[in-house]
Amino acid sequence: MDFTFVSGNLGLDLAGTVGDRRGARVDLLPTPAELARWTVAAGLLDVPPAAGDDDLAGAVALREAIYRLASAARTGTAFEAADRRTLNLAAAPAPASVLLGEHGVERGGDLAAALSSAARSAAELLGGPRAALVRECEAAPCTRLYLDTSHRRTRRWCDMRRCGNRAKAAAFRARHT
């Protein structure tokens, strides 16, 4: 399965690497190689970094902490101290580098730098006024969190092409049966 980046925030996109959290959970980061591939697909690095089992465990812990923190922001509940600690530890290293090279933008760094960039993105979102824009996709079984930046703040799906289209097609079929 390919990665999607529709959440409007890199940290939320990392949290979105799990599908159907309340059902037949689908993990898009089952191996260190997939985690390394995600860093490139996310535009954090140009070359997949070295990643091992411990790195994957740390990334998964960060992903889950971001999901819980964003869910807390969405529902107006207090952040858990352990989740804040996990996010802050991941955000502490220097982020991935972005340089202007001879042939355009060059992104580099190791896995810790890539995860730091994602953690910083989540921290800036969840610690600021845009945290109130975090929503959860209404399409079953999607559980992706996203930023509702629509004009009237009435966006219902994480992505119109996938979840929104499926929901509208199902509603159409229900009306015509």
TrEMBL record:
Zinc finger CGNR domain location: 134-176
Entry-linked Gene3D superfamilies: Jann2411-like domain
Alphabetized InterPro entries for the sequence: ABATE, ABATE_dom_sf, Znf_CGNR
Domain of life: Bacteria
Protein name: Putative RNA-binding Zn ribbon-like protein
Lineage, top ranks: Bacteria, Bacillati, Actinomycetota, Actinomycetes, Streptosporangiales
